[in-house]
Design a protein that fits this description.
This protein is mainly α and about 900 residues long. Among the domains are: about 180 residues, Rossmann fold; about 60 residues; about 90 residues, no CATH class; about 190 residues, Alpha Horseshoe (Serine Threonine Protein Phosphatase 5, Tetratricopeptide repeat), CATH 1.25.40.10; about 60 residues, Orthogonal Bundle (Arc Repressor Mutant, subunit A), CATH 1.10.10.10. Helix content is about 65%, strand content about 5%. A five-stranded parallel β-sheet has the order 2-3-4-1-5, sandwiched between helices. A hairpin with a 6-residue loop joins strand 6 and strand 7. Helix 2 runs parallel beside helix 3 and helix 18 packs antiparallel against helix 19. The longest helix is centred in the last third of the chain and has 19 residues. The radius of gyration is 33 Å and the shape is globular. It holds the Pfam family AAA_16.
Length: about 900
């Protein structure tokens, strides 16, 4: 077989780039981008030829019909490598089970799946270098595109190469994948003439001129046009010969293919149409693995006319080029397409999403059975991370509904999912289309419009009134059974109430929900008890959240988000953070954006709580960019509030107060108490950092007065230690002790691990009886979850050390003060670290900062410590919610910082750091 390089005309510079790409010693990715027919496929074939001697080649092709089916494209690359799965660990095998439809677990996040794919590719490439070739990448489904982009950016150091062909002018997830690109442009005029003369010699001059003029350097057009304008056709005008003028080149090519298609027997055209609509590709290995793809039969006539090829391995008929496939569809009549979709829907009767795709396209008149099938497919898509697709199917289901009520309900469902997808404009349009049908202010419309007003503008007051009225109306209308619309209204009211943090509104809500009885779902009851006032209603919430998360596979993304918010209020968020991290990347691009924003907030909160402050700032920056881009003003302010908290904890008080002022100015006039409580907390923490205890006390009592825990003030229990410490430092000893006793009397120590820690800490600080104080210090410092909350623990250790220095002498105080100082320094809590070091110096202990000797982040120090104890990367990852690969990357940075080259030296290096700190 003649070399492609020898038969290719022109493309010298492209060939040089591709040769360097293939011969490079390590993995990399490259995107070839150009118009349809410009020669991308030929260049991909050239890459394959260059790599064939040393690489195992796996080809894949994007299919427009599958562009909305999550992971459909990724199957093509992974299927040939399934025999390597046994070499992976259980967690990664489980990830692939979900992707291949063998498991029921929540779909993995882009990061989780991307890491698993990288490991699988690395394992396969250890035997022979891999070349992954993707043609028509613009049609790859979003989920697969994200994973391919993730993988493509991380091939350095591997034996895997990825090359992707993309059609210009068609939006694709690869547009923002930040992969190196090689533009594939039309051929220069002289090269186009050379190609035409080589492949079609002795053309009539008039035909030659016409082909060159119409092809405009497009190689496919140069090759395909001449046979169709030979002979007597060349005697006619250009308009008559080609039947069109002044249209873009791809359409001209489709017209050429259309002429061939129109000349086929009707039965052959029908076979081609069914194959095209079902995404039959161009004969790649991946096409042979699709199982239930429509197999075209008795289409030899199409092969003879150059429209189809025969796959040499499977023997199946495949389209010669994607342009043929699209031309087949465009040249068919609407009735022909609907008939083909009907047959394909029957073929895919066991595939809920693919069947729905064909049913939606095959149906014209309202049909309740089809609408119901589309609803089921939308639910399936949502659980797989395809909320955007779900909106499309729900909207189509509404169009096919037989009654106005069902149409309104389904439009409401579509608007609800669109709202959770962060597509507020789309949700608003769906609401308007619903009200335009005569269903003004239907409950479904209230749900959607409430979410728009709430998330976009932070309008809690009107949202409360509107939603409350809708729930009362449904109750008064005599609704007898729980239903989705009522549950959504209830959950929206609870979310709005949480942000408003208004006592009267909450008490009215409790009365309303009590009147609904069993119409309120078990999950909504959890939200009601956790989101409002955990002190009054939090008993047993931890156990109920645990039970709800046990059925994770049955939960929608918004259910997971809401349950995680409940877990935050009882301080058990850490154990659920892996669930959030697995889905948040997926939701950002393909699913419920509003929920992804909340998930990022929750991840950020947990990172703050467990001392991963650098990571929390990065999460906050990501969330701020996302919320700003999508104009979710409420979440923009919410994110800035959390960033203000971190700044205050670090002692960056100017930045903290700047963010505090920004959020407070926006939130207070709107009555968003949730955020104004956080701004008061920022003010308290910043004042404590500055040592301005009077200001700290005034900020703290703005949240709750001493001796009480203001109802429905979610920050009241969290600021217990702050108010107590500020009161003590300002001489308000009795108020401090009264407040600590109030926390104990309200059983805060039974509600959550964190509240137990700070309740005992507050009692230890304020109890005048030394024996009781010692007991409370021991309860706090020995609590099983104490190390989970390092900042609070270090504050208690600092207070304990100070008390020990005054009552038992410096030697007894030093261990507590040393532990506090180490923790504060690792966290980056500079003011508190300085105080702890000053107290150590007061004991006669010479200290110096460890920054010069160990510039480790808190996360790096934590991972290094676990590794020094002998834990594997996998075991460390399980404790830190990181992948083994990320753990390895952290250790890679830690070793040079500590001046070591092996894991075995970690213990001694960390010991030297500790010794230096204690000098």
């Amino acid at each position: 077989m003649e070399s492609i390089a020898r038969t290719m005309v022109g493309r010298k510079s492209e060939q040089e780039v591709l040769s360097a790409f293939v011969t490079a010693p390590e993995g990399r990715a490259l995107v070839l981008r150009g118009d349809a027919g410009v020669g991308k496929s030929a260049l991909l074939d050239h890459v394959i030829e260059l790599a064939a001697d040393k690489h195992r080649v796996i080809r894949a092709a994007g299919v427009e019909a599958e562009s909305e089916l999550p992971f459909a494209g990724l199957h093509q690359f992974l299927y040939p490598l399934l025999n390597h799965l046994d070499g992976l660990d259980d967690a990664h095998r489980k990830v692939f089970d979900v992707v291949f439809g063998r498991g029921e677990d929540t779909p993995p996040s882009v990061m989780t799946l991307g890491i698993a794919v990288l490991d699988l590719l690395s394992l396969a490439a250890s035997q022979q270098p891999l070349l992954l070739v993707l043609d028509d990448g613009q049609w790859l489904d979003t989920s697969s595109t994200e994973v391919c982009g993730f993988v493509g950016r991380r091939l350095t150091g591997s034996s895997v190469k990825l090359v992707v062909g993309l059609r210009s002018g068609v939006p694709s997830g690869f547009d923002t994948a930040a992969l190196p690109e090689l533009p594939v442009t039309p051929l220069p005029e002289n090269v186009a003439e050379q190609l035409l003369d080589q492949r079609h010699p002795a053309l009539d001059p008039r035909v030659r001129h016409l082909v060159l003029d119409e092809a405009q350097g497009n190689p496919l057009a140069l090759l395909e046009l001449p046979p169709h304008i030979r002979g007597d056709r060349a005697e006619r005008s250009a308009e008559e010969r080609l039947g069109y003028t002044g249209v873009p080149l791809p359409q001209r090519l489709q017209q050429v293919y259309g002429a061939r298609i129109d000349s086929l027997d009707a039965g052959v055209r029908a076979e081609l149409l069914r194959g095209a609509l079902d995404g039959v590709g161009a004969g790649t290995a991946a096409d042979r693995t699709r199982g239930t793809r429509y197999r075209m039969r008795d289409v030899d006539e199409a092969v003879a006319r150059g429209l189809l090829d025969i796959d040499p391995l499977s023997g199946d008929f495949v389209f010669r080029h994607p342009l043929v496939r699209s031309t087949v569809v465009q040249s068919a009549t609407p009735n022909e397409r609907r008939a083909a979709h009907t047959i394909l829907a029957q073929l895919h009767h066991d595939d809920i999403e693919r069947r729905a795709t064909h049913l939606a396209a095959s149906t014209v008149d309202p049909d309740e059975n089809v609408a119901t099938a589309l609803e089921a497919a939308a639910d399936s898509a949502t659980r797989r991370g395809g909320a955007v697709t779900a909106v499309t199917w729900l909207t189509r289901a509404a169009e096919l509904s037989e009654t106005r009520e069902e149409r309104s309900r389904r439009l409401g469902d579509a608007a609800y999912v669109a709202g959770h997808s962060g597509r507020l404009d789309h949700a608003r349009q769906l609401v308007l289309s619903d009200t335009g049908s005569g269903t003004t202010d239907s409950p479904s419309s209230v749900v959607a419009s409430g979410y728009v007003a709430f998330f976009e503008d932070g309008d809690v007051r009107s949202s409360q009134r509107q939603v409350f009225a809708a729930i009362e109306s449904m109750r008064d209308s005599g609704v007898q059974e729980p239903n989705d619309v009522l549950t959504r209204l209830i959950d929206l009211l609870l979310a709005v109430n949480q942000y408003a943090s208004d006592r009267d509104a909450w008490e009215r809500t409790h009365q309303l929900l009590d009147s609904l009885g069993d119409l309120v779902s078990a999950h909504s009851r959890i939200y009601q008890d956790a989101w409002g006032d955990v002190v009054l209603r939090g008993a047993g919430v931890r156990e109920r959240v645990d039970r709800a998360f046990a059925s994770l596979g049955d939960l929608e993304p918004w259910d997971i988000t809401r349950l995680a918010v409940a877990a935050y209020h009882v301080d058990t968020l850490s154990q659920y953070r892996p669930h959030l991290q697995r889905i948040v990347d997926r939701e950002v691009e393909t699913g419920a954006l509003a929920d992804a924003m909340t998930m990022l907030h929750l991840i950020m909160l947990d990172q703050i709580a467990v001392g991963e402050w650098d990571e929390a700032e990065r999460t906050g920056a990501r969330c701020l960019e996302l919320t700003t881009t999508h104009r979710h003003t409420l979440f923009v302010m919410h994110t800035q509030a959390y960033l203000g908290q971190i700044a205050a904890l670090r002692g960056h008080t100017d930045r903290a107060r700047e963010l505090q002022a920004t959020v407070d100015t926006w939130a207070r006039p709107r009555g968003i108490g949730f955020l104004t409580q956080i701004t008061d907390t920022i003010g308290t923490t910043a004042a404590l950092a500055d040592g301005d205890y009077e200001a700290a006390y005034l900020h703290a009592i703005g949240i709750t007065p001493p001796g009480t825990l203001t109802p429905y003030a979610h920050q009241a229990p969290h600021t217990l230690l702050d108010l107590t410490e500020a009161a003590l430092h300002t001489g308000r000893t009795q108020q401090a002790h009264t407040h600590a006793l109030a926390a104990h009397q309200n059983n805060l120590h039974h509600l959550s691990p964190r509240l137990a820690l700070i309740t005992h800490g507050a009692l230890a600080l304020t109890t005048p009886d030394p024996a009781q104080a010692t007991t409370h210090y021991q309860h706090a410092q020995n609590h099983p979850a104490a190390t989970t909350f390092p900042f609070e623990l270090a504050r208690i250790q600092l207070a304990h050390g100070i008390r020990q220095r005054h009552t038992h002498g410096p030697r007894t105080a030093r261990p507590h003060l040393t532990q506090a100082a180490e923790t504060f320094e690792r966290l980056g809590a500079t003011p508190w670290a300085q105080r702890a070091r000053a107290e150590l110096r007061a004991t006669g202990h010479t200290t110096r900062t460890t920054t010069h000797h160990t510039p480790l982040t808190w996360q790096e120090h934590r991972i290094a410590d676990l590794a020094a104890r002998g834990l594997t990367n996998k075991e460390i990852g399980e404790q830190t919610h990181l992948s083994p690969r990320t753990v390895s990357s952290h250790l890679y940075r830690v070793f040079p910082k500590l001046g070591i080259t092996s894991r075995a030296a970690l213990r001694d290096a960390l010991g030297r750091i500790s010794d230096d700190e204690n000098v």
